Amino acid sequence: MARCSFDIHVEDIMGALMVGATLIMLRPRGNIDFGYLSEVLKQKQISYMHTVPSLLHNFSLFLKETKNLDAMLCLKTLCSSGEPCSVKLFNLLVNIVPDKCRIWDLYGPAEATIGCTLYLADKTANFDDIPIGKAIPNYQYAVFDEFRQEVSNIQDGELYVGGAGVFSGYLRRDDLTARGLCMIDGERFYRTGDLVRLDSKGLLHYRGRKDHQIKLHGQRIELGEIERCLLDTSISACVVIKWDDDHLIAYVQSSDIDEEQLHEYCQSHLPPHMVPSNFDSRILSIGSFVYQSTLLQHVKLLEKLTKNDINLTQWRTLHIIQGATSFAQERILLDEQVRFTKNVAIYNELDALKVVQGCLSRNRLLTALRSVLTKQTILRTSLVIDNKGGTLKQCITDRHQTFSLAADLTFKNNNELYDIIDQIIIDPNLFDLSSGRSFHCQILRQDSSMRQNEDDEIIPCSDILIVAFHHSVFDRFSSGIFFNELRHAYNNNGIISVDDDSLQYIDYSVYEHEMDMMVSHEFWKSQLQGYNLERRLSLPTDRQRSSNDQRSGVASVAEIHFDDEISRAFLNYASAHQVTPFQLGLATFYTFLFRLTHGDSDICVSGLNANRYKSELENMIGMFVATLPYAIKLNSCWSFDELVKH
Asked: Has residue 154 got a pLDDT over 50?
């Protein structure tokens, strides 16, 4: 039933030939000429048919309306694949196919040689949704969360497929290959990008796409590709969604929309299956950016009308320049305004890099910095209070175009260098968040009196590069991302790949506000139930504790290094008791505090969480870190093994 340009066509031909079956070739476009197709089924006594659910649905309705159900009399096997099989379609098929006919739901991407799971549907069962079943022989699967940890039966996770049919890679696309393939226990697995859930019977249930890719009538579609095409026209912003499993709708922003012209443009630049069915400009506001809240209200209205779930977990670029701040940003800014004195900066994040070999070019460095600021819009985003609503807003600026290095400072020895760095760290005027000045870069030159003839363009060996960020736009996880991109831009004369459709921090902030956090709220409420947040541990100290709760700005980090033997024992214990190294470390710390406080059993420890819970956030600069409370009520009779279990 598939066209010869479709991957499953190979499986149809090879499968039939391998079992010695007769293969019936349809005339051109015969698979959508339902009158002709029904005659072929009867005359050739077809016993096996395999196609996509959308075609099956329309063909079944045709047979029912034309009272031509005898076309299916010889059918023994009916397979559906390529897109989810709905309960509505299954019930329709049950009433059309003969009793002897078995209905199979198959699943599998081209990267796993088409089919890798299957399910024989029970015609007498009542389904909430049709499973995609279990792995076929020579295949295996794993279901992981964002951190590649196995999920429980009640959780959604990404499906990884391994086995004999997994492909070796994409031709001349090493970047896609590295993203799509991974090794698990020495076996090659393909990351499908599909979300699934495992039920109590061990059956997989398809839950949707993890990324921006959808399937429509069995065809994979990147919604971002359609949006990029539309942005080449006169419109200023757009969002494309899949609606009612049958249509693509493009919401566009334009002062003068010509739907016919847009339709013709898409037809000439996109494959037929990617052309939107409808173009709508009513829900995008008049102005310089898209109001995502308006879009979501409209989507929720569509959800009520169609009784279909709109999956807000599929995050895409919103192409906006103004929106709400994230909760992490609100916390940082509130701390600055309320908890801490304004005379000393608390949230200046600083890195000092010494030129240890060769030299740097000031102009190349500046060009590279501007390139990174162009790509990572959060580093040029202003944070202001909206006078109308009294809420915090962020707005992307064009500061990357005029960014320059701060004036050079000089030092003669390490003591002077450390003094300069200390002053920068606590300088309350280093940043101006209201204008988007949240990033600072400066050169510290060593003993300039001895190098008066040197070119200012050259940053020689032993000079120091200071890079500072305000914590509201940057966390420590962002550091590696920033310096990797800076190095790449510097080595390539400022050229850095910028994808207009890549998710930005402002997109994350908007989506975060749309998330339903009631489940999380109830979880943390139950975790801290009964714990007195006002009490303090009776820790022994060598000096008087400050009477107020304001930070002094002076802190230290203690590092404890274990030798190989202890490290191996630590990891082996964690593996044997099925806990993570962090959980084992936390249990050890609980024990230490219990003994240090002479038996204080009510303990709460705070810990930092990277909070980058979606793959789209892994390469994004921004403030994501969350401080989590880990509370426990110890029983002095517990053994250490029992503590670890809790």
From this structure: yes
Strand partners, 216: 219
- DSSP, collapsed to helix, strand or coil, labels residue 365 as helix
Give 552-561 pLDDT, tens digit per residue: 555 667 888 8
Spell 519-531 as b/e; 16+ CB within 10 A means b: eeeeeeeeeeeee
Mean pLDDT of 114-134: 91
Task: Report how far apart the first and last C-alpha atoms of the chain are (Å, whole number).
Answer: 56
The yes/no answer on whether domain 323-513 falls in CATH 3.40.350.10 is no
Equal CATH topology for 323-513 and 527-540+555-645: yes
The position carrying tokens 């977990």 is 313
What is the CATH number that goes with domain 1-107?
A: 3.40.50.980
The neighbouring-strand residues paired with 158 are 144, 195
User: What is the distance between the alpha carbons of residues 182 and 205, in angstroms, rounded to a whole number?
Assistant: 23
The pTM is what? 0.53
Q: Which two tokens stand for residue 539?
A: 């820790």
CA 313 to chain centre: 9
**Cβ-based neighbour number of residue 351 at 10 Å:** 13
Q: Which neighbouring-strand residues pair with 371?
A: none
Angle between helices 223-231 and 259-269 (to 10 degrees): 120
What CATH homologous superfamily does 527-540+555-645 map to?
Nonribosomal peptide synthetase, condensation domain (3.30.559.30)
Name the residue among 357, 441, 450 with its Cα closest to residue 411: 450
- Listed by start position, the domains of the chain span 1-107, 213-306, 323-513, 527-540+555-645
Which homologous superfamily is 213-306 in?
A: ANL, C-terminal domain (3.30.300.30)
DSSP codes joined into one string, 295-351:
HHHHHHHHHHHHT----TTS------SEEEPPHHHHHHHHIIIIIS-TTS-S-EEEE
pLDDT the model gives residue 94: 93
